[in-house]
């Protein structure tokens, strides 16, 4: 019996059995008959099925043995993937899924084909993972720091570029870890920073510092982040020099005042470097940052902002008389001042000449009022009034970009250059306490002489802006008054220009708004008397279930949320009252006004509800009826001869208008700062000068008056 191989154009292999007495193979009707004929031919040549397959592909891979052209052609066609019907994967799958490769009662599992295929596949994957990890953890892998770590690298660190490099150079490792952490369905829908491509997660081409997406529902963890973190931990276990993630984790632990034992525990599991390594890293980062900052100080003008930092040091296993101690120090940031002529803007002689004219003595109410651009301020407030309406109703959202552009172009006063990004440099913390006048002197000397490395003669040539909270600025001014007669230029500290930081200005105004419009203190629970004056924040705070307290230095964000939420609700109510409608949303859909029409109506609302003149008008009796709808009669809570005379108009409405005015001014101040327009912010600050004088806030008042005089 003879046998021949035949290869079709598609690459499929056919095995023909030829009888010795025939010149052509017999026609076999069924697949089973054809397979049986092939097997019979193999047996006649002393081949088992396994032996035949092994020898067929072994001989094909051995270059030392001579092979026939037909043998080479058919094996190559089968293995190079040109076959459209059968390929190597199909053969392995059939071997693995065959019912004869599974466990039978009388056979041991370790000898069956499926188990052996599994073990072989695991060994192959194991070798692949080992090779990929070895390459990735090496110097050429691209994930080890080329030099010393810098603050720029630490602050801009992102998992996205690490994940991209890991998937590019070690896809098998990532797939194995992902299969462990994420279900099959979950792996089909990776997040945007780990997007899927061709059935596998593919990473974006650009580095991003944006935070990764969180989980869904109550699960706030992103499993893909966990996969990358575990991968970095495993690389650190393989190569102790691979410590990018661990060093960053050490810095984060130090920044959060973690106990030293936390470093030991996390270091044992590969999540952090040791505490001593973290300290060494921080010293290196400090030296690198200081070197860069000193270089910048020689060619740029810097502004310094600093504040105190306190940390409670507990006494463990305290004995009699021992107690916890509060350690106080100072942290500072240097900010580069751009877009100005330093020799003109920070000329000490110009400031001294202005002070010599004693212009502060000529400040009057008329002068202060003349510095307020009320027309411009009202136009800006009208834009905010329309913005509240636009934010409430989605079908008006197309107006928001126009309103933003209006603030940045037509209504801009002194806006930052487009595209400018303020450069700030964190400075080293010091042990000096800025809570005293002497402590502020030590802080200023340490920042400029020691950390910036400047000479005293260089410092005294130009003004240096130093900013902080009200207490810090007042102590610096006290220091300057004490040393005003000093003959030495540097030690006179006349070159220091202390200014209240804008954030602290906003906080002070927020405190003033709450204190002014809070209303009478809440009655005790025993009296069961509720607050009924709707013009007070105490009423709104109780109505909304907020926990804001009228106190010195209130919690900033809860207090601001109360002020802004109340303002938005009342402005929308003004819109509803202006259009005389019960459903403002339906009215806006029906009318479909243009932006110019909304701005015109908003200007009327500003003049009616957001000015001091409108509050005074609300108290004028009959005159108020021409502008405002009549409300219910107000009943004074006071009884007897001590009761003040009832106003002719609406006292509650007048108080509400004043509260809305102050709240809107605070909103405009925050909006101007966020938009980088210091001119708009200073227009609001000019209004605050009068408000702070009436409120008798000594520190803030004196700061504003000195700011105006300079």
Structure report:
- The protein is 53% helix and 7% strand.
- With 710 residues, it is an alpha/beta fold.
- The strands form three sheets. Strands 7-6-5-8-9 form a five-stranded mixed beta sheet.
- Mean pLDDT is 80; it is low at 1-5, 7-24, 196-214, 523-529 and 696-702.
Topology:
Blueprint: E1 2-7, E2 13-18, H1 31-44, H2 49-61, H3 69-79, H4 88-97, H5 113-137, H6 151-155, H7 159-169, H8 171-181, H9 184-187, E3 196-197, E4 200-201, H10 223-238, H11 244-255, H12 260-268, H13 275-297, E5 302-313, E6 325-336, H14 342-345, H15 348-356, H16 365-370, H17 374-392, H18 400-408, E7 424-426, H19 437-451, H20 456-459, E8 464-468, H21 470-482, E9 496-500, H22 502-517, H23 537-543, H24 556-579, H25 584-591, H26 595-609, H27 612-618, H28 622-625, H29 651-675, H30 678-695, H31 698-709
Parallel strand pairs: 5-8, 8-9
Antiparallel strand pairs: 1-2, 3-4, 5-6, 6-7
Spans where pLDDT lies below 50 across 5 or more residues? 1-5, 7-24, 196-214, 523-529, 696-702
Gross morphology is elongated
Helix fraction by DSSP (H/I, runs of at least 4) = 40-55%
The SS-based structural class is: alpha/beta
Terminal Cα span:
114 Å
Determine the oligomeric state from the structure.
single chain
The profile of the biggest β sheet is: 5 strands, mixed
* Extended strand count: 9
Number of helices: 31
Strand order of the largest sheet: 7-6-5-8-9
Rg, please? 39 Å
Average residue pLDDT: 80
Percent of residues in beta strands: 5-15%
């Amino acid at each position: 019996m003879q046998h021949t191989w035949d290869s079709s154009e598609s690459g499929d292999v056919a095995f023909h059995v030829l009888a010795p007495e025939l010149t052509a193979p017999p026609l076999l009707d069924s697949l089973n008959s054809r397979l049986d004929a092939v097997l019979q031919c193999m047996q006649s040549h002393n081949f088992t099925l396994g032996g035949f397959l092994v020898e067929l592909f072994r001989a094909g891979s051995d270059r030392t043995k001579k092979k026939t052209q037909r043998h080479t052609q058919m094996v190559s066609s089968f293995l190079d993937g040109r076959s459209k019907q059968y390929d190597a994967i199909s053969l392995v799958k059939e071997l693995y899924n065959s019912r004869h490769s599974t466990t039978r009662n009388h056979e041991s599992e370790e000898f069956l084909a499926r188990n052996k295929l599994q073990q072989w596949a695991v060994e192959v994957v194991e070798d692949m993972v080992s090779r990929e990890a070895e390459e990735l953890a090496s110097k050429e892998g691209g994930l080890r720091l080329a030099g010393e770590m810098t603050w720029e690298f630490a602050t801009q660190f992102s998992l996205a570029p690490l994940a991209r490099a890991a998937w590019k150079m070690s896809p098998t490792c990532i797939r194995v870890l992902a299969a462990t952490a994420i279900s099959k369905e979950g792996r089909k829908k990776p997040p945007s920073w780990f997007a899927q491509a061709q059935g596998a997660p593919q990473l974006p081409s650009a580095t991003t510092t944006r935070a990764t997406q969180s989980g869904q529902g109550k699960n706030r963890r992103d499993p893909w982040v966990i996969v990358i973190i575990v991968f970095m931990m495993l690389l650190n276990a393989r190569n102790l020099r691979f410590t990018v993630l661990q060093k960053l984790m050490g810095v984060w632990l130090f920044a959060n005042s973690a106990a030293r034992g936390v470093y030991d525990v996390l270091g044992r599991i590969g999540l952090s470097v040791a505490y001593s390594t973290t300290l060494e890293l921080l010293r290196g980062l400090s030296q690198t940052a200081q070197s860069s900052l000193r270089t910048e100080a020689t060619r740029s003008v810097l502004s310094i902002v600093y504040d105190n930092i306190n940390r409670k040091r507990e006494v463990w296993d305290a004995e009699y008389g021992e107690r916890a101690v509060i350690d106080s120090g100072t942290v500072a940031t240097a900010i580069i001042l751009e877009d100005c002529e330093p020799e003109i803007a920070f000329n000490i002689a110009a400031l001294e000449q202005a002070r010599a004219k004693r212009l502060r003595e000529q400040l009057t109410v008329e002068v202060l009022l003349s510095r307020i651009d009320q027309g411009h301020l009202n136009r800006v407030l009208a834009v905010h009034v329309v913005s509240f309406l636009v934010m409430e109703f989605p079908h008006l959202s197309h107006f928001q970009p126009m309103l933003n552009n209006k603030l940045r172009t037509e209504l801009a006063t002194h806006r930052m250059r487009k595209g400018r990004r303020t450069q700030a440099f964190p400075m080293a913390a010091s042990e000096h306490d800025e809570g005293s006048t002497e402590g502020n002197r030590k802080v200023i000397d340490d920042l400029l002489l020691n950390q910036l490395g400047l000479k005293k003669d260089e410092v005294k040539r130009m003004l240096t802006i130093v900013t902080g909270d009200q207490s810090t600025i007042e102590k610096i001014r006290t220091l300057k008054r004490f040393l005003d007669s000093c003959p030495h230029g540097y030690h006179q500290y006349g070159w220091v220009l202390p200014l209240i930081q804008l954030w602290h200005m906003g906080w002070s105004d927020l405190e003033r708004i709450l204190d002014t419009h809070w209303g009478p203190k809440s009655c005790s629970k025993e009296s069961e008397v509720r607050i009924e004056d709707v013009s007070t924040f105490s009423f709104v705070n109780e109505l909304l279930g907020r926990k804001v307290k009228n106190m010195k230095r209130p919690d900033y964000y809860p207090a601001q949320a109360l002020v802004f939420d109340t303002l938005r609700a009342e402005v929308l109510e003004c819109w509803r009252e202006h259009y005389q409608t019960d459903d403002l949303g339906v009215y806006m859909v029906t009318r479909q006004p243009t932006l110019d029409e909304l701005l015109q109506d908003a200007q009327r609302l500003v003049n009616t509800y957001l000015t001091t003149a409108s509050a005074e008008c609300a108290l004028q009796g009959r005159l108020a009826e021409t502008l405002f709808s009549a409300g219910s009669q107000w009943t004074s809570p006071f009884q007897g001869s001590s009761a003040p005379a009832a106003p002719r108009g609406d006292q509650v409405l007048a108080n509400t208008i004043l509260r809305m005015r102050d709240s809107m001014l605070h909103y405009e101040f925050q909006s101007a700062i966020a938009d980088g327009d210091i001119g708009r912010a200073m227009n609001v600050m000019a209004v605050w000068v009068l408000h702070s004088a009436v409120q008798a806030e000594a520190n803030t008042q004196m700061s504003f008056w000195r700011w105006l005089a300079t």
